[in-house]
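Subject: Sanity check before I submit

Could someone independently write out the structure tokens for this chain? I want to compare against mine line by line before I put it in a report. The sequence has 83 residues.
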Amino acid sequence: MKPIYLLLLLISASCTRPQERHCADFKTGHFEYTYEINGKKHTSTFTRTENLEVDYNGREIDSIAVRWINDCEYILKIINPKS
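---
Independent answer below. Compare away.
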């Protein structure tokens, strides 16, 4: 690839607008996700409020404290871990 084409590609890529993030949609509510272990798919759900998340993982229920860093990032800390 000629250097001029590479330069044009880099300039055009840097001119695009960043993708919009709608993090507020995931701050509170009831959510479901699917994951795979040893080739078998599992589905878990969790409910999140402003400061608390309750995870329903199969037969176990975990309570997790939520501390928001900004609208899109947070830190989770398990409350009273059993293990």
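---
OP: Matches mine. For the report I'm noting this point. The longest helix spans residues 3-14.
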